[in-house]
Amino acid sequence: MKKSQRKLGIILSYLSQAVHILTGLIYTPIMLRLLGQSEYGLYQLVYSVVSYLSLLSLGFSSSYMRFYSKSKVKNDELEISKLNGMFLIMFLVISFICIMCGIAMIVNISDIFGTGLTSSEYDTAKILMAFMIFNLALTFPNSVFNCIIISQEKFIFQKTVILLQYLLNPFLTLPLLIMGYGSVGMVFITTLLTVCVFVTNLVYCFKKLNTKFYFREFKLSLLKEMWIFTFFIFLNQIVDQINWSVDKFLLGRIAGTKAVAVYGIGAQINTLYMQFSTSVSSVFVPKVNMIVSETDNNKQLTDLFTKVGRIQFVIMALILLGFTFFGKQFIYFWSGKGYEVSYYVALLLIYPVTIPLIQNLGIEIQRAKNKHKARSIVYLVIAIINIFVSIPLVHYYGPIGAAVGTSISLIIGNVLFMNWYYHFRLGIDIIFYWKNIFKLLPSLLIPVAFGFISESLLSYDTFFKLCIGGFVFSAIYILSVVFLGFNKEEKNIILKPIRNIFKKKFNN
């Protein structure tokens, strides 16, 4: 049952991502034209500032799985109920603090953004900030119910809710944009859907999973252990906020909202890119925690790390190479004129982030082993350096400079340091891992050759031609990887269902 939940969870994850991208392909160009570059930049700027309040979670949501797994091994239902109660109270308190901090931010909004905005933009920014803060405050208690659903490996329900959220968002937002409500209409719909998701998760946990919450007899020792564990996850969240939000903030203060909009398009592509990798690894989080809790077998963890990494590499390489060859024209058709630089911003972000993305199951292994402290400290130091490097780069090179600063920090921390750490401190056989990844590289030669030839000889002057080119490239890539790159087990996963379909057809 759990295995089928994982398989269907992965399928639904990629279906939801496909829906997210397809709706984005249609919705984003319309949204950009209805909003205009300045208002879209304002929306991105306010979001980048409000997102810093997500740090109030202090990393506690990431620790739930570890402590749930320990209680589950003991088969102690009362302890699980106490854990649920403790987490819910903590996040309700955090939600209240978020609202208080948000009110302070709205009151002092002119000090936050400086002279980078006009007076009308300040008025809109206050409304956007109010909705975003309320939306964020709801996500804190919702994360408790979401963690409970994941801990019981109910991936089908969880991924279906996400899929519906992706489907409904553009369909509900577009009418408000057409009616002239602009970015305020966008954040209103986002907040409305967050409320619906929260209520849905709450009802599912109580009615379907029979989740119990025990609000007495909290163990202070458990809270202390939890804080020691989550503190370094909290540091890692600070790093993520610096890497993915500080560039927009610096651009907003130094270069204005239009520069934020240009960077925002490249960053949006990077965000979608990153979500594709977590679609696979997220469903293996409970399994990683159970392996560590029961046996802590490094060979078993290395095999799982490598297996998931190969799947992720195949998926990420398709998107990476496809965007490299077709991305420039795609951004032109998708975003319109004025966003040409966004292509280079996206490339500078997605190339260095690819390696940590195909290794992101390692983050869960670190947390399960309680060995995530060094990573958090090193990442924090590098992220701070990123700020000081990015300031002069933004002054001289605008969005490109901001992306270069982030790329440098990603290469040093996420690529060089982490691979050393996985091998020598975590017990993962990283040499075995990369040998298995490199075995896939020869299968990329044919699609890469096609990409260069098509880029040189063919003209993608219409969106239809671009779609045809992308489709042919994807077909060549898939065939090449399946028949030249996959091992027997991976080929069987892909080809067995196809053989079964043909057998049934001929038998009938």
Mean pLDDT equals 81
Strand content: under 5%
Q: Rough shape?
A: globular
Count of alpha/pi helices: 19
Largest sheet: none
The Rg value, from CA coordinates, equals 23 Å
Give the strand tally: 0
Our measurement of the CA-to-CA distance between the termini, rounded to an integer number of angstroms, reads 30 Å
Q: In words, what does this structure look like?
A:
- The structure is a single chain.
- With 508 residues, the chain is an all-alpha fold.
- 85% of the residues lie in helices and 0% in strands.
- It contains 19 helices and no strands.
- It has helices spanning 2-35, 37-50, 60-74, 77-107, 109-113, 119-151, 155-178, 182-208, 220-254, 257-281, 285-294, 298-335, 341-358, 361-369, 373-424, 430-438, 445-457, 463-484, 488-507.
- Helix 3 (60-74) runs parallel beside helix 6, helix 7 runs antiparallel to helix 8 and helix 9 crosses helix 15 (373-424).
- It starts with a helix and ends with a helix.
- The mean pLDDT is 81.
